[in-house]
Specification:
The chain is of the alpha+beta class. It has 2 domains: 282 residues; 163 residues, Regulator of K+ conductance, C-terminal domain (Alpha-Beta Plaits, 2-Layer Sandwich), CATH 3.30.70.1450. It has 21 helices and 14 strands. The strands form 5 sheets. A 4-stranded antiparallel β-sheet has the order 1-6-3-4. A 4-stranded antiparallel β-sheet has the order 7-10-8-9. Strands 2-5 form a two-stranded antiparallel sheet. Strand 13 and strand 14 form a beta hairpin. Helix 5 packs antiparallel against helix 6, helix 5 packs parallel to helix 7 and helix 6 packs parallel to helix 21. It is elongated and about 95 Å long. The chain starts with a helix and ends in a 5-residue tail after the last helix.
């Protein structure tokens, strides 16, 4: 009776998670497994015969991948456009190296092609690739090869991302700082300066006529005219010797100085009739609207900066608002209440978690992943469960809002669901893979394990060195690219516990869809070896 109870799936699940967290918190000379320790505990208990129902694996995978997509989405498109070619090339180098090693193993060790193709997909932990390989070979030996290499692939990627930075003596904290500094360079710090209107070409012209925001990329937040200080609107006229406070990055302010006049050492302090406030954007009705559409100037208010994820952005007419943005508003105290009502400014709403976007987003992702597309009659391509959910999350988070539905999550909610999904996934995958440990030791098991280990590790080394020394890529981003190329969610999880930045998630999300396609293509090519 007690034995049956101890083997109940839900009980085993939480035992694995509990022990894994304890083990993961243990540090030896600064090295800790963190959350990834869960999979090692699961492998051990799986070897002993304990199992967690596979439904937990699917549930955990869906939650983890969806929250990654929602978090990485806003930065994914920009990263793909800015760095996409570099990241995709690293992924191609890694997967092509693995395919060449597999081909070499077939030739050197006279391996069965189905087993070798299974090893290829297991070593790179690619379930969609396995499906394509099985379809091409029509042999159950493909699944055998996959089962042998998969545990090595899962553990190998985790160990690689944990140990390779130490081998190259890369400080991940410094890399994180570099990444954040790069973000700040791309979104320069916002500052301000007081200028005296001395350019006769702009005397008695309105801010709208001068089109200051579009020309200079800066804004005028205050004007002093005839001793009165006020927040301007688009129709405010500038007169000789007026003082204006301008806001923007250094380049924008320098352009405004050329347009308006020389700087002066004077503070422009509002009288009691004006105020400056940071206000939160929590009103669903204005999400995805631009500042131009919002038209706060009609309320005698000016947005002088936007703070998003800790970064100050220049407010431009086309700047679209996202849920959780903080706006620095200057304006009339009489109208500030109306501005606050328009934006929402509700901290409680910011901390709330609406499960409808999560559930509906995953449903859309599952449906997207089930779509099969014939490729030139050679094979059928499908994003699969993981690829579909990730792609849906990336697209929806960039859309931001559909009717009343906000495709976003608060940081705390995202982290909670992400960690829960991760723990469920790793505990289930570990017990499943651990059950194969005894079987792979028979016959050619050790030889196949060794070949699988080489196919797992060597391509990661080649890809990492290529990205780090040739492209000079940030190492945290690079590790995300490596785990995305290996389609390894546990590998990403191992990085996730070592950094507070989304660099790894963005790198993972950027290459993951392409890696799925490349794995299917190379699996098909390897399966054709039997005809040559």
């Amino acid at each position: 009776m007690i034995g049956e109870f101890l083997h109940q799936g839900y009980f085993v699940l939480f035992v694995i998670i509990s022990i894994g967290i304890v083990v993961g918190n243990f540090k030896f000379k600064g090295f800790a497994l963190d959350s990834s320790a869960v999979i090692f505990v699961a492998l051990f208990l799986g070897h002993l015969g304990f199992q967690v129902p596979t439904e937990f694996q699917t549930l955990g995978l869906l939650l983890f991948i969806f929250t990654i997509g929602i978090q990485a989405g806003p930065g994914f498109l920009e990263a793909a456009l800015r760095y996409g070619r570099q990241l995709m090339l690293i992924s191609l180098v890694l997967i092509a190296t693995a395919a060449l090693l597999t081909f070499g193993a077939i030739w050197l060790f006279d391996l069965s092609v189905p087993v070798a193709v299974g090893l290829f997909n297991g070593a790179l932990t690619s379930t969609p690739g396995l499906a394509a390989a099985f379809d091409a070979t029509r042999s159950p030996l493909t699944a055998v090869g996959y089962g042998i290499a998969y545990p090595v692939g899962v553990v190998g990627v985790i160990l690689f991302v944990q140990l390779f930075p130490r081998f190259l003596k890369v400080d991940l904290k410094k890399e994180e700082t570099k990444y954040l500094d790069q973000l700040h360079d791309e979104h320069p710090q916002i500052t301000n300066r007081v200028l005296k209107v001395s350019n006769k070409n702009i005397f008695m012209k309105s801010i709208r006529e001068l089109d200051i925001r579009n020309i200079t990329q800066g804004v005028i937040s205050r004007v002093k005219h005839d001793g009165n200080i006020f927040a301007p609107n688009a129709d405010t006229m500038l007169y000789k010797d007026d003082l204006v406070k301008v806001v923007g990055d250094v380049d924008a302010i320098n352009r405004m100085e050329l347009l308006i006049g020389e700087p002066v050492d004077e503070e422009l302090t509002f009288d009691e009739g004006y105020m400056i406030n940071w206000l939160l954007v929590t009103n669903k009705k204005i999400i995805s609207k631009s500042l131009r559409e919002l038209n706060l100037s009609a309320l005698n208010a000016t947005v002088t900066r936007i703070r998003r994820s800790g970064i100050d952005l220049k407010p431009l007419p086309h700047s679209k608002l996202r849920f959780g943005d903080k706006l620095l508003i200057s304006g009339s105290s009489q109208e500030m209440h109306e501005v606050r009502r328009l934006l929402g400014n509700d901290e409680k709403r910011l901390s709330e978690t609406n499960f409808l976007p999560i559930a509906l987003g995953i449903v859309i992702g599952v449906l997207l992943g089930s779509v099969t597309i014939p490729i030139f009659g050679l094979f059928d391509f499908s994003l699969g469960l993981t690829g579909g959910v990730l792609t849906a999350a990336l697209i929806l988070s960039n859309i931001g809002k559909t009717g009343p539905i906000l495709w976003s999550m608060s940081g705390s909610a995202n982290q909670l669901l992400r960690k829960l999904g991760l723990l469920l996934f790793m505990a289930t995958v570990g017990t499943s893979a651990g059950g194969e440990l005894a079987g792979v030791l028979k016959d050619d098991g050790m030889k196949l394990i060794a070949i699988g280990s080489v196919i797992t590790l060597l391509p990661m080394i080649v890809g990492s060195l290529f990205g780090y020394y040739f492209f000079k890529l940030n190492f945290i981003t690079l590790l995300g690219v490596i785990t995305g190329s290996m389609t390894s969610t546990p590998g990403l999880a191992a990085i996730d516990g070592k950094t507070d930045s989304e660099a790894a998630s963005v790198g993972y999300a950027t290459v993951y869809p392409a890696a799925l396609v490349l794995m299917i293509i190379f699996s098909q090519l390897l399966a054709m070896v039997k005809f040559s």
